[in-house]
Amino acid sequence: MTKRFRFPGRRSFGRKAQDESQLNWIFILIVGAVILAFFTFIVVKQRAASEAKFAGKVSQQLNTILVGAKVSSGTVQDIPTPELSIRFTCNDYYIGPASQRLGGRIVFAPEFLEGDRLITWTMDWNSPFKVTSFLYLTSPFVRYSIIGKSLDDPKTRNLFESLPQKLNKRFFSIEDYNAGTISEDGDKYVRFIFVDVGDSFNFPVGFDKVEISGLTVNTNSHQLQFLVKSSSGLITSGPKYTYIEPEVLYGGVFADKYDNYECIMKRAYSRLNMVSRVYLERLNEIAPVYDATNCEGFYRNNPNLDLLVKSTVNYPPDYPGVADAKVALEETNIKKLQLLSCPLIY
Amino acid sequence: MGETIAIMFVFFILLVVGAVFYMNLQRTTVTRDIAEAYDLRAVELAQTISFLPEAQCTESNVVKASCFDIYKLIGLSKVAATPQGRDLYSNEFGNTKILLVKVYPVGGEWTLYSNPKANFTNAPVTHIPIALYNTTSDKYYFGVLEVTTYQ
Asked: Can you point out the beta strands (E) in B32-116?
């Protein structure tokens, strides 16, 4: 009590210093938190930006690879990539936040591709002249199980052997499938291709934890239909699609969603229509030169090319019309024009 | 307190200067990356066009490398000008102009496709030498494919 009377200023000075020190600490805490938040914000933003940049770079490089693969027809390439996940739709593909347009390219691939390797396979689509190149994309982590009536079935074996050696593929009989002797072998995704063995199938034994899908092919009617996983097994999804050339069938093997396949084939047939028109115009241009020669009659308003154009105006195309025009054009090109030493149609 | 505030002020000034410098650096990198992407796109496009089945020379469906059939080019330029053709090729080629010029013997050029961008900032041209084949005279000429990519 006495101290209070003797040194009133000392107490107020000490209290002021104490208050200031407390204020200092609060200030430091606030500023520290602001600085910390600022740097955390920078780190998070930078991380997102560098991920987006990486995805953009990879998608750009992949685009270059796809363009290169498209023009090197008949080749199979096993391309190492960074560990990535690619989502394919009919018109674009996505790697993380980055996307690239596929443009006019015909690319058949599963909707999701994951892993550190890509397998590309390029095939020319001739109908009967080259229309475009089909690019098939997959990864070694996708397994293709081809299932036929028996291991000796020639049509199933033919399909199995026509697929590239580099593909992760196996050949089984429907008996093996029904008996549950097929194992998953650690694959992430298994695609079952049933050839001439029916339309719906039991759920494969031991594949509960693996992603599966399927395709059923009828080689007699030249039709294919997509299969999806359900509680009861593999059931059909989407309509039946007709194929004329094996390249179109391979498209069904590699694409795993019927709507994607349909959209891609729509683009392919629209391209066939356009290329046929170009050939028709070309023949009309050269026709006057060959009037009154033994080549006359093959070029002006060529009926087979006209049929091909008319058959492919809409999707689905008139398949019998396309097939007939193809056969007739092949015959004219090889058996007639070549023999008469006339310029070939294609 | 006053000193601390002064130190913080200087610190934040330095931070802002650093951030501005870094952002400028990033902007330069992004601009360069965009330019590179456009260049790459032009090369890819040129490659795609060189392998167009509706323009390539073929003999019994066997493709002759780096050769365009003149009559196919005439047909292609007509078909690409139709609404359906424009639809299909704009999806494939985007904002570009594809011109084929016959350089030897001189004479003849075909605009295979033209879809320029309204307010383009740059339009680099890629030249690709190509052989031109005349089916009726069975002769080869020399031409250049000019691919203009609008940016």
From this structure: 56-59, 62-69, 96-104, 109-114
Q: Which amino acid is at A189?
A: Y
| A83: pLDDT strictly greater than 70 | yes
Give CA–CA dist A283/A299, Å, rounded.
5
- The candidate with the shortest Cα–Cα distance to A122, out of A56, A65, A171, is A65
CB-based contact, A202 to chain B, within 8 Å: no
A96's CB contacts (< 8 A; 6+ apart) are A51, A52, A54, A55, A84, A85
A104–B88 CB contact, under 8 Å: yes
User: Mind listing the pLDDT tens digit for each residue in A31-62?
Assistant: 889 989 989 999 999 898 888 888 888 888 88
DSSP-derived secondary structure letter, A335: I
- Residue A8 pLDDT class (50, 70, 90 cuts): low
Q: Which residues contact B95 (CB under 8 A, 6 or more apart)?
A: B115, B116, B117, B120, B149, B150
User: What pLDDT does A7 receive?
Assistant: 56
CA–CA gap between residue A240 and residue A226 (Å, rounded): 8
Q: What percent of chain A has pLDDT over 70?
A: 96
Q: ipTM of this model?
A: 0.86
Closest CA to B55 of B1, B131, B150, B149: B131
- How many CA atoms lie less than 13 Å away from A120 in the CB half-sphere? 24
Digit-coded pLDDT (tens) for A286-334: 999 999 999 999 999 999 999 999 999 999 999 999 999 999 999 999 8
| Cβ contact A130–B61 (<8 Å) | yes
Q: What's the mean pLDDT in A2-29?
A: 70
Q: Nearest C-alpha of chain B: how many angstroms from A190? A: 33
- Domain limits of chain A? 45-137, 141-256, 265-337
Please indicate whether, in this complex, the C-beta atoms of B136 and A104 are within 8 angstroms of each other. no
Q: Does A230 touch chain B (CB under 8 A)?
A: no
Q: Could B136 and A289 be called an inter-chain contact, meaning their C-beta atoms sit closer than 8 Å?
A: yes
Kindly list the strands in the beta sheet with B56-59, ordered across the sheet, starting from the edge strand earlier in the chain.
Answer: B56-59, B62-69, B125-134, B139-149, B96-104, B109-114
Domain ranges of chain B: 2-149
A174 membership: H or E segment, kind and range: helix A174-179
Split at pLDDT 50, 70, 90, the class of A198 is confident
Q: What pLDDT score was predicted for residue A1? A: 45
A2, two tokens:
């006495």
